Fold Olfactory receptor 10K1-like.
Amino acid sequence: MEWANETLVTEFVFLGFSSLAGLQRLLFAVFLLVYLFMLGTNAIIVSTIVLDRALHTPMYFFLGVLSCSETCYTFVIVPKMLVDLLAQKKAISFLGCAIQMFSFLFLICSHSFLLAAMGYDRYVAICDPLRYTVLMGFGVCVGLVAAACACGFSVSLVTTSLVFHLPFHSSNQLHHFFCDISPVLKLASHHSRLSQLVIFVLGVFVLVIPLLLILVSYIRIISAILKIPSSVGRYKTFSTCASHLIVITVHYGCASFIYLRPKSNYSSSQDTLISVSYTILTPLFNPMIYSLRNKEFKSALQRTMAQTSCRVS
């Protein structure tokens, strides 16, 4: 075999921010502050949803799960990235890289299906409000989350297995700041068209199927909103969906750019920039988009803070 005398790759070295060597301490400070703020806002959201009974509704149940999901997938990426920004050697073991990829794909794929479940929740709330509590009972909500996690687990397991069963004999320099599919595939000594096709099909399944479900939900929602006679009523009804639409646009826009374009168009610098947006910036803005500008949530937060302060005093 031509690879017989070549050394197997046992670790990967991240080069994602190597072109910004003079700014790495500044990037560390900025990303650390953003990460801590994101953790704090998500912790406030989840605590408020759990403690305030007025928020024990399907919409806020999904929001709480979404906040937990975002916290988990940033935890898979950001702490290691922060350490690497200060380290001389930015390395990760072969097994560690596989675990990081599996964990990230599991959480991000589940995230896609969770957004579809949230779209279905908005559809039922607007198009069939009289049966909302029946159609979106607690068991149904838990079932939808479990189905999203099952889909995410299956896709991530198959994808990670396909990627890390490939031979890695040449370079171990990864032009990224975490183990994502495209940069790792680029280092493989050989990969078949079949494995690339399977990975692409799985990407389509994770991104296109949930997006189609969301589109169907919103076609029905828009049709129902247009039947509301008053403009004020139409505005108030649509405003309950606006946050979800913003998050969908950002999530699917970034993910589609990364995972659904031809591999010949791969650009490490573009991928790094887009990846920073959906691993750090999107989880930062999502809590503010969904909750901190929501009057119902603000009232619940004030009640929770008042109750907590009374217990402490």
About this structure: The mean pLDDT is 84. The longest helix spans residues 94-127. The two ends are 74 Å apart (CA to CA). The beta strands are 11-14, 91-93, 173-174.
